[in-house]
Amino acid sequence: MRLFLIPISTRRTLIFGQRLHKVTAAQPSLTDKASAKAANLWMKWEMSDKGWQKWLTKNGNKLLNQIPFEEWGLKSIPPLSSRKPQNEVQAKKVEVFYPPTILSEKQIPEIVHKLATERRGLHRQRMIWSIIGMPIVAPFALVPVIPNIPFFYLLYRAFSHWKALSGSTHLELLYKSNMLAPVPSTKLDAIYRRVNMNAIVDTGRLLKDSKVEWIDAREGNYKEVPEALLLKESEAQEISQVLDVPALAVECERAVRQVTQQLHTKAEKVAQKQRVNDVTKEINEEDKKAL
């Protein structure tokens, strides 16, 4: 396995695991069989021209894209049970590729550890609630023709959180066993070098154009530089190509899209709060003049 650290913004990083030599078992597990069957069925429904299958897959894909990119990243890490027992330490360290312009070698182990543990409680809690909810929605199976959508959604979410927890456990074991080998990637670094590292999100332009705008922080006097994007969605394909990891393109696009939307929402709240403060200030000044 190889790990990739892809900084999305100045505060958030995507981690992705690539399996180098996937061992195929003689007898696939029940989990593998169920996953393959579900994937084939979903693909078949996506090819439908109309009907509830088409509606379901269209809206289902929207829900899947709303799953946090951090969860998708942890799910890319293979669970320990599919590799080796926890008490067996692999002989070769796991390479961690990163852009040296953004991250330093000393930071890599701590970043991996943080990404492995910061959402563990959330995934465990939501997995439990998904499992608890499945018996509650089970009676929907009595509805003819249409499958029990709420049940299968909760089943998928429980499985998804379990995979994220498994990936988290694997990463933490690598961290504690000192089995992480940071590898600076010059190809990845070249992409980040093209981006102005002083770029920040300008709230005014953001609200005006409904998209993230890039400006140079040196052009203005900013008391506090907000979180800034380090990648654009258009660069996701190039990252996957230079690293020769096709699956990474989708993950990068999703991560950039989600962070962009979050920054947009945050900027709107800041601007709205500022407008309220300005109006309040004007009212207070008028009251003082009236007195």
From TrEMBL:
Protein name (record) = Mitochondrial K+-H+ exchange-related-domain-containing protein
Q: Record the organism.
A: Ascodesmis nigricans
List the InterPro entries: Mit_KHE1
Ordered alphabetically, the record's keywords are: Membrane, Transmembrane, Transmembrane helix
What's the source species' lineage? Eukaryota, Fungi, Dikarya, Ascomycota, Pezizomycotina
Gene Ontology cellular component list: mitochondrial inner membrane
**Would you kindly state one Gene Ontology biological process term found in this protein's UniProt entry?**
potassium ion transport
One Pfam family this sequence matches: Mit_KHE1
Q: Please give the superkingdom of this protein's source.
A: Eukaryota
Q: Which residue ranges traverse the bilayer?
A: 128-156
